[in-house]
């Protein structure tokens, strides 16, 4: 890589000064570690935690195909999430991609501040059982049976701010039917 002639004296000065050189090396090292942690280390950890915690919380098998994190753009994508049916191979809920773009103020508030959310190709399969319950009733019962949190807020919730949200869906294979009692 060739350094532009007008920048060469400044770079030479930084590299030959002891303190400035040390600061430049430290700053470069911290930046490299941040990039490695964000791009390479965090995604498999987040994927594993998403699968295990959601499976535990919902009582259903949850799979995530892939997680992408961009620590410089402060964005994350969850690709290929699927919540399986209680019995069988079908999916109760699935999507191709969930993209979340966080703002820089998330770092200062120590809470997620969301710039935008995009959900691509969501798919929901709801079945009404013979006993007049729905295929997701066990999940509702699981959450209803938990004691309320002391603060009045749902567990694990934090206040967030979102500026925009979009969803893209694909066509369904069967037209929706009205429910009959």
Describe the structure.
- The protein has helices at 8-16, 18-58, 105-109, 137-144, and strands spanning 62-70, 75-84, 91-102, 113-120, 123-124, 161-168.
- It has 181 residues and is an alpha+beta fold.
- The chain has one domain.
- Strand 2 (75-84) and strand 3 form a beta hairpin.
- The radius of gyration is 24 Å and the shape is elongated.
- Residues 171-181 have low confidence and may be disordered.
Short description:
By secondary structure, this protein is α+β, with helices and mostly antiparallel strands.
Number of E-type strands: 6
Mean pLDDT, to the nearest integer, reads 83
Annotation field: number of helices: 4
Biggest β-sheet description: 6 strands, mixed
Helicity range: 25-40%
Helix-strand sequence = HHEEEHEEHE
Low-confidence runs of at least 5 consecutive residues: 171-181
Task: Tell me the strand percentage band.
Answer: 25-35%
> Structural class, please?
alpha+beta
Shape: elongated
> Domains counted in the coordinates: how many?
1
Question: Radius of gyration, Cα only, in angstroms?
Answer: 24 Å
| Beginning-to-end CA distance, first to last residue | 72 Å
């Amino acid at each position: 890589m060739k350094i532009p002639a007008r920048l060469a004296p400044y770079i030479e000065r930084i590299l030959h000064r002891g303190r400035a050189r040390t600061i430049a090396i430290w700053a470069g090292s911290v930046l490299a570690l941040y990039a490695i942690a964000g791009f390479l280390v965090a995604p498999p950890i987040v994927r594993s935690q998403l699968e295990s915690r959601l499976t535990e919380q919902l009582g259903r098998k949850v799979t995530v195909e892939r997680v992408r994190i961009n620590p410089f753009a402060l964005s994350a994508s969850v690709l290929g999430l699927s919540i399986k049916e209680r019995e069988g191979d079908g999916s109760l809920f699935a999507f191709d991609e969930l993209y979340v773009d966080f703002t820089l103020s998330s770092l200062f508030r120590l809470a997620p501040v969301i710039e935008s959310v995009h959900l691509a190709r969501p798919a929901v399969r709801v079945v009404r059982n013979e006993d007049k319950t729905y295929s997701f009733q066990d999940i509702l019962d699981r959450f209803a049976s938990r004691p309320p949190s002391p603060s009045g807020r749902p567990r694990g919730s934090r206040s967030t701010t979102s500026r925009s949200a979009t969803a893209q869906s694909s066509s369904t294979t069967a037209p929706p039917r009205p429910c009959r009692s």
